[in-house]
Amino acid sequence: MNAMSGAFSLGPDAGRLLVRTGRTGLGSRAGHDLTLEVTRWEGTAHLESVEPAAGSVEVTAWVDSLEVREGTGGLKPLTDGDRRDIKKNISDKILRADRHPTIEFRSTAVEGDSAALTVQGELTIGEQTHPATLHATLVDDRLTGKATVQQSQWGIKPYTGFFGALKLKDDVEVAFDLSLPR
Q1: Under a CB-based contact definition with an 8 Å cutoff, are residues 152 and 54 in contact?
Q2: What is the pTM of this model?
Q3: In this model, does residue 29 exceed pLDDT 80?
Q4: 1 pLDDT above the threshold of 50
Q5: Secondary structure of residue 159 in the 3-state scheme
Q6: Where are the alpha helices (DSSP H) in the chain?
Q7: Would the N or C end of the chain have less CB density within 10 A of its end CB?
Q8: How far apart are CA 62 and CA 95, in angstroms?
Q9: SS3 of residue 106 by DSSP
Q10: DSSP type of residue 63
């Protein structure tokens, strides 16, 4: 069992919070699988090495801080203009940052040990809150993990382009890699 216990502040200074999308549809060759980084977020992790179930996690991420870091696949590389257009579509049309500026996660249960933590919680996107599960590992001072979010469960219609021939997959991966201070 890892000996990390205590309350830890989370945010960009502690590590990275990434969102990865995939594409599907007849026109999928034209699009890109995206890696987005949340550049403004904050949270707290309470870790208990003796009794992991006593731990908790709270995170708030600002929608307008999503930045396109990578676009793989596609017929041509992403341009700076493409990146700006993607950011604008996400913020203005998909997640509606003007009406819902943040996405929030609050844990409700923690199970397992540092080698395999399962964190159950409530994820709020827009006006909807639903259960979400993240899986994590804690090795030394490094907390890594991921969760899969099905956009349609939160009332989000996955992005489509080229008259519906290019579609964003419904499942989006949220991943984190954090360094916790000793």
Answers
A1: no
A2: 0.90
A3: no
A4: no
A5: coil
A6: 80-88
A7: C
A8: 11
A9: strand
A10: G
Q: How far is CA 13 from CA 16, 44, 105, 177, 178, in A?
A: 8, 13, 19, 11, 9
pLDDT beyond 60 at 129: yes
Amino acid at 99: R
pLDDT at 14: 94
Structure tokens at 30: 């034209």
- Torsion sign, CA atoms 182, 41, 43, 146: negative
What is the layout of strands, in order, in the sheet containing 142-150? Answer: 6-10, 41-47, 56-62, 102-113, 116-125, 128-139, 142-150, 171-179, 15-20, 33-38, 66-72
pLDDT score for 173: 98
Q: Which residue has the tokens 């017929």?
A: 75
Q: Which DSSP state fits 114?
A: T
Q: Would you say 104 and 124 are in contact if contact means Cβ atoms under 8 Å apart?
A: yes
Which value, in Å, is the radius of gyration of the alpha carbons in the chain? 17
Strands 15-20 and 171-179: antiparallel
Which residue's entry shows tokens 């599960």? 133
Decide if pLDDT at 48 tops 90: no
Placement of tokens 């819902």 in the chain: 100
- Which DSSP symbol is given to 80? H
- Residue whose tokens read 């997640």: 95
The whole-angstrom separation of Cα 101 and Cα 88 is 14
Task: Please report which helix (H) or strand (E) contains residue 86, including its range.
Answer: helix 80-88
